[in-house]
Amino acid sequence: MTNKQVGGGGWVPLFVAVGVLCLHLSSLEAAAAGEPSRFFPGFQTFQIKTPDTIINGVVGGKGPPILLLHGFPQNHVEWRTVAPLLARDFTVVAADLRGYGDSGKPADGVNHAGYSKRETAKDLVEVMRQLGFDRFAVVGHDRGGRVAHRMALDCPDAVTRLAVLDIAPTHYLYTHVDKAFASAYYHWFFLIQPAPYPETLLQGNEAFFLRTQAFVSMIPDPVSPDVFSEYLRCFKDPATLHAMCEDYRAAASIDLEHDEADMNRKLASPVLALWGEKGVMGRQFDVLATWRERAVDVRGKAMPCGHLIPEQVPEQLVAELRPFLLAGPRIEAAFHKGIVPDGDLSDWKDIPFTSVTPATGVFDAEPARTDSSSDLSYRFAVCHDDEALYVAVEVTDDVIRVDGCAEGSVSCAAWDADAVEVFIDGNHNRAPDSRLPDGSELEYGGEFALVANGAANSDYSGYPKMFGRANTWQGATNWRAVKAGAKKVCYEFRITWAMMGGRVRSGDTVGFTLSVQDNDTGHRNHALYWCGNPRRPYVDERGFGDLVLRKE
């Protein structure tokens, strides 16, 4: 199978908002330079040129982007069952690591730096960039998990979420070696021997090694003869075999140096750690504890299988990955008294703001014409007291329209003018998708829309006719300067706990997102959300972020 090369000046990147795909063209069309994939129906192959090498892989699906990274001694074909299942909700990219499969085999470098996890991660960040994704989630199995870990450390602005399969951190393992681990993972210490010793012993015995070491009792199911032949084809290439050994040599040398330099840093992105209950990791180590030493937000569980999770239990794996990958971000709302919703944000000076731009937010499914942060961006802050939730939003836009509704009116059409909408699912910590069966409202929450000139609207449980009442919700804007040509407008919301059924208290987790409706042409162009599932971000509460109400 041959692929056309993507890279350099020969391919024009698609317009992408956020890292969550919302495109006029799908990424499949972007990858149309390749051919249909034999192992991934509906996917397209690619070969993308990076500064040091060429990376081979496939892309398919539609939705938020996910990068899948394989382990040893496989290649991207390891994801042949998982990828199509994920492609129902995501744009899925599965790539061969440098040196593996049909990716390029760069030089070893000093101290095996050419196969360090850092350099390997750089390749893949560049691949995602060329496919149009600046931010994406990563799922890595085995060696791919170690690359993903380094990627999340080196590129925290790119990696939104990280799932690692059947591994503990490399540095931890090398500093906790005992007889049981060395016996089970003997290949770690065999493959790191100086070249060409392991390469020479393996050449001519590739099929025997794969059958008796990597895929014991897994042929023909789940590793079919066709798949085994593909793995064997790549493994028999002397350049691939040497590159795989270099991957392990790097792990025992330069990768440890990089890890030791970062021992005081923890991953900020959420981490999902899954391991096979019949494998070595779960028997030898407290996997979650090892990752909690390296990340601030870790969850996970054992899977009913051995080491090859993507091939042994693909459906169960997807069932764990999907809710983790679809979950929104997490922020805290400080307990703070003294906020007055008057459109003046001076009383928010001690509360941190979160910035949202087309590169970090989520556009809804409508065609998005905004293509730079100079057109539309905003920042927001959230706090609460004993009675209410407070939200402040400062919008920067090239065109601010306030004439869609009469000033101060109620039940206006928020999407006909610049507006901010706040979405709350007050039951988020107990039921992430709690829309009432008749679709009329969010249980213990609502949708609260405030137009730039102080008009109000809500489609679900915001009760627009109750706007302005102290025991329900209030809002105010500061738009006077807009008439003088200013490009900013400020919004403030006060939404009472009574509005949410009185069920929310300090310490709870509230489902939360907000959007800025952008109207440059006299009718709604699009809305930019802080977070959400791009197909219907305002409907699917599972894409809302977690807003933690910090206790006093």
Q: What would you say this structure looks like, in words?
A:
With 552 residues, this protein is an alpha/beta fold. The chain folds into 2 domains: 5-326, Alpha/Beta hydrolase fold, catalytic domain (Rossmann fold, 3-Layer(aba) Sandwich); 330-549, Immunoglobulin-like (Sandwich), CATH 2.60.40.1190. Helices cover 23% and strands 24% of the residues. It has 16 helices and 22 strands. Strands 10, 11, 12, 13, 14, 15, 16, 17, 18, 19, 20, 21 and 22 form a 13-stranded mixed beta sheet that branches. The protein has a 9-stranded mixed beta sheet with strand order 1-2-3-5-4-6-7-8-9, sandwiched between helices. α3 (117-130) packs across α4. Mean pLDDT is 85; it is low at 1-32.
Set out the fold topology.
Elements: E1 5-6, H1 27-30, E2 44-49, E3 54-61, E4 65-69, H2 82-86, E5 91-95, H3 117-130, E6 136-141, H4 143-154, E7 159-165, H5 170-174, H6 179-184, H7 186-190, H8 197-202, H9 206-214, H10 225-235, H11 238-251, H12 254-261, E8 271-276, H13 280-284, H14 287-292, E9 298-303, H15 309-312, H16 314-326, E10 330-335, E11 354-356, E12 362-363, E13 376-384, E14 388-397, E15 419-425, E16 445-451, E17 456-457, E18 473-478, E19 488-496, E20 509-518, E21 526-529, E22 545-549
Parallel strand pairs: 1-2, 4-5, 4-6, 6-7, 7-8, 8-9, 10-13, 10-22
Antiparallel strand pairs: 2-3, 3-5, 11-13, 12-21, 13-14, 14-19, 15-16, 15-20, 16-17, 18-19, 20-21, 20-22
Helix pairs in contact: 3-4
